[in-house]
What we know:
The complex is a heterodimer of chains A (168) and B (1051).
Chain A: H1 2-12, H2 16-30, H3 38-49, H4 54-64, H5 68-77, E1 89-94, H6 97-101, H7 104-115, E2 128-133, E3 145-147, E4 150-152, H8 160-165
Parallel strand pairs in A: 1-2
Antiparallel strand pairs in A: 1-3, 3-4
Helix pairs in contact in A: 2-3, 2-4, 3-4
Chain B: H1 7-17, H2 22-25, E1 38-43, H3 46-50, H4 53-66, E2 73-78, E3 90-93, E4 97-99, H5 107-117, E5 126-127, E6 134-135, H6 142-145, H7 163-168, H8 173-181, H9 184-194, H10 206-215, E7 221-227, H11 236-243, H12 245-259, E8 262-269, H13 274-289, E9 305-310, H14 320-327, E10 353-357, H15 358-370, H16 372-376, E11 386-393, E12 399-404, H17 409-416, E13 426-431, E14 437-440, H18 450-455, E15 464-469, H19 474-488, H20 494-511, H21 517-533, H22 537-541, H23 544-563, H24 578-582, H25 589-597, H26 601-611, H27 615-621, H28 625-629, H29 641-654, E16 671-674, H30 678-689, E17 694-697, H31 706-709, H32 718-729, E18 734-736, H33 744-750, E19 754-757, E20 763-764, E21 777-779, H34 780-788, E22 798-802, H35 806-817, E23 822-826, H36 838-846, E24 850-852, E25 855-863, E26 866-880, E27 886-890, E28 896-899, E29 902-905, E30 909-910, E31 943-945, H37 948-951, H38 956-974, H39 1016-1019, H40 1032-1039, H41 1045-1048
Amino acid sequence: MEAAEVSLREDRGVGYAGRVFREIQDIISDTEGKSGAVIRVLQQAQGLFGYLPAPVIKTISRDLKIPLSEVYGIISFYHFFSTVPKGKYVIQVCMGTSCYVKGGQRILDALKKERGLDPGGITADSRFSLETVRCLGACGLSPVMAIAGDVHGKVKASRLNDILDSYK
Amino acid sequence: MVIISSVKELEELKKSVAPRFRVREDTDFTRFKSAPEINIRVCRGSGCTGSGSEKVSQTFEEAITERKLSDRVTMIGTGCHGLCEMGPIVLINPGDTLYTRVKAEDVEEIIKSHLLNGRIVERLVYHDPVSGKPIPNYSDITFYLRQERRVLHNNGFIDPWSIEEYIGRGGYQALAKALTQMTPDEVIAEMKKAGLRGRGGAGFPTATKWGFVRSAQADEKYVVCNGDEGDPGAYMNRSVLEGNPHSVIEGMAIGAYAIGNVRQGYAYVRAEYPLAIETLSHAIRQAREHGFLGKNILGTDFEFFIDIFPGAGAFVCGEETALLTSIEGKRGNPRQRPPFPANVGGGLFGKPTTINNVETWSITPQIILGGADWFASVGTENSKGTKTFSLVGKINNTGLVEVPLGTPIGELVFDIGGGIPQGKKFKAVQIGGPSGGVIPVEHLNTPVDYESVTALGAIMGSGGLVVMDEDSCMVDVAKFFLEFTKDESCGKCTPCRTGIPKMLQILKKISQGKATLKDLDVLEELAEMIASASLCGLGQTSPNPVLSTIRHFREEYETHIIDKKCPASVCQGLFRAPCQHTCPVELDIPGYISLIKDGKFAEAYYLIKQRNPLPAVCGRVCNHPCEFKCNRAQIDEPIAIRDLRRFVADYAFSNGIRYAPEVKKQKAERVAIIGAGPAGLSAAWDLALEGYPVTIFEALSVAGGMLAVAIPEYRLPKSILKREIEDVESLGVEIKLNARVDDVESLLSDCYDAVFIASGAHQGVKMDVPGEDLDSVYDAIEFLREVNLGRKVSVGSKVAVIGGGNSAVDSARAALRKGAREVHIFYRRERGDMPAIAEEIRAAEEEGVHLHFLTAPSRILASDGRVSGLELTRMKLGEFDRSGRRTPQPIAGSEYVVDADMVIEAVGQRSDTSFIKDAQIQVGRGGVVTVERRTLATWRQGVFAGGDVASGPKTVIEAIAAGQRAASSIRRYLQGRELSPLVERDGYEPIAVSSMLPSDEETKERARVKASEINVGLRKTSFKEVSLTYRLEEAQEEASRCLRCDLEVGG
Lengths: 168, 1051
């Protein structure tokens, strides 16, 4: 946990950490003390950082007056929250029923073969991280893969490299 | 923004907006050129956006501005039309022309051709998936014709980002009516009369739920919209939120009014739907600006607010109590009920709450405005109204549909969905997501309504219908859903948390071939326990996929367990290459193909002969199930496995290469085989190799069974068959011709220690129509036998063949060669239903055979005692039968007559088992001998039966496999060992095969090498073999396309 704190200050200059924490405090005060706001605060915090570093979680717990264990309980329950950094581009391969039936597994196999990526993993250059999702709701286009929010449909394993190379 | 503060103002706004819809409602294309206004609708639903519709819209906009067309042409973005796989979808009116798969590059052509010159761009319109015909007009497309779009009536019509358009179509009128003309109790009464059942999956009557909340004693209550559409494969709610968001807002407001004391509503929308969240958010803002949300709505004292709560990726939050807990900011654990959410203490923040699905809310305004009777005018007794479904998976018209409840499932799959792509066979429809089950072919007539689906062991769920074909394994499907529910289990209760992984463990064992039948019993017991003991719906329904697949596909489970085979070739723990796994004799296909590539033709021949004693025959007539599983098909086309095998066999013949395996020391016991067909020959081969003296008794004057007397010379030359039979004889097998066996018992008492009955099915089934006994009415098998034996057969000049299988096609092509001037095949079903091999059907048509569908004979007409014609009745397709095909039914009064002077009946085959006089050997329906399925033993000790005589008519390769299975059983029997369900065939000489994977160059897209054929003119007048063997270069070229799946899997 200490390492994360240090890197925030070092990588982007002193004062950055302070600014960021202030943004979180703004998010929290925006909730106007509404009960049940913690999930939305976590969502917005993750939107800022790309993931939830420990110092951020601690701040949220302290300012919302919710025990740290409870906050971690929420984070570990919902798939969307991540306590590890994600890549520059997040690849989401849909493993819903329709995509599965239409060969979604082949995309995962190809990503493993071409980029050494496992679900939950990240490439060595931090450009891509991989997640599996359970249904993006674009079932007409199975099998589906989303990269940084762009939805790619009817993905063929043989075209994978071309798609990935377009994300620099 | 102007606040609408009275009903009158609402009416006025509607009147001012409504005229702009006229052009969109104008379906008459003839008016296009002179129309003053043209409207273009580009779909911006999730599917089309994923296919690039944003660029299409942009390009249209730019082009319209550039060409100064803006005063005549309007363009809007709409919500989802439903034909999602064919997006981006563009609709142009007047004329309702629907364009599919539109790319930004196509816009120029559409503008030049359609907009400026009134000519439809045919290549872009919808084409019927089976016939290929273009259907430019939206309302003519069967996909839409059969639907009843009520929930979806605004989808694809209005711009979902415009509240005016919603109002223009009657939006917020229902809210106005409820607030100003109805009391809350009257609203609930109307909903009750309508009979709406919750559309989220449980199907609980909506009015009843609202009634509970209304009568709960509290001064603060909530309404919640469940937009956590988590069922993978279902995306109807998403499309409503993105295409018609105001309907949900209006519905929730009406609900809030009806329940009373509701000031706040929440819409919980899953985070995986950012576009839906954005669209709904925008709609809520607009509703507030116009006064439909907030205080004093429409000038009354009713106030109502809606907030959106995005989910965070937890399937269980779709369960109502977990959803509420999530809104309260906690882990989404479900809660114990009672108290129910509708009661005090059970709802959101402890207040009485109603949670309803997006679709339930969305249809509410239409019920209030149109009336309960209108809503209930479709549907069934207990399931009123329409329902949206997502039709996805292996289906031609993939997308969203809406039909009245009670529509038969088969209609959804075949009529609306357009059937299965690539001509594959339908296997099951998965309905209800991870809580649901599978509905197999036998139940295609089942109406889609809550009770009927539950009776089959599935649930309606939110309406996701995933269609699966022959390439899906049901064990794998159950495993897939359990992996899902295991991940999504909240962990609170033991049956779910611990039970699901245990079920999964057993399923994994089964898919790896390591399970026993006892494991299956344990699995069922476990499943039932989890269903009854889990705390919430997720756990309670998690066993459904398991129980449902076991119920309808038990045999498939048993095949995994007992035979260690996966019939769909999916469970990778059981095999290497799918082609080899599917082959009934498990031929080492990648092996011999690799040897061909390396030029080692002799080794390839030996490798094939090790598993199939008749490769030259099979290389010509096999129906090649292997090719349907070939993975190469995902790149371009399947490998021509059969043609390659033929090449090897023919090469061996022409180069004097013989396969001479070692024969074991001679044994004392003798075996008699009845029938020298493929089953008999194959069993003889195996037994002879083991050293057993074998005698085959053949009733006819030639050996080969159907190979000799049914398959015509132009498909299988006699010389080839003779060579392969000689190979069998060279092992010491004695074949006695013209030696019909009169009774089986005498063989056993004579000097034989075991008997294998393999007499085939050589009798034709009669059609039972008047006139059948006339001369010149033949049964196909009889006709083909006479032709093949070289006997004189007088063939008429106009021949009618009845049937759709290989015998029918063979008879037709043989009749042509025997001098018939015209040959017609009459089949009572449709082309796609014909069981004959596709290549044969194509070849017949090339030779001039006429095919007629949906027609069957009712009478054979005679004149002067000779056949003069055929009276046929047209058929229409009725309900689905157990094979998944629609049953043909005669259309009364549609009889018509065709001329014919010869009729050949090819409607079925059965076995003549009259020679089996032994009462102990049972003969069942259809004349098949009763045997234990896997050992092929009959009730009589020492007597076995296999091939068509025991299984009913099947293919050559299945007969060969049966012969091997019988030989294995006989060997065990003679050795005094217990019989086994597994086939024992050992002693293969290992043959070295390269383990090089194909290069990148070899895996690039390439066409399959087509075998040459002799030209059509020559074909019709002789029995010369039609298709030619590959040349050496062709064989090696084709062999290099093989992906060597045997090396990748398990490597």
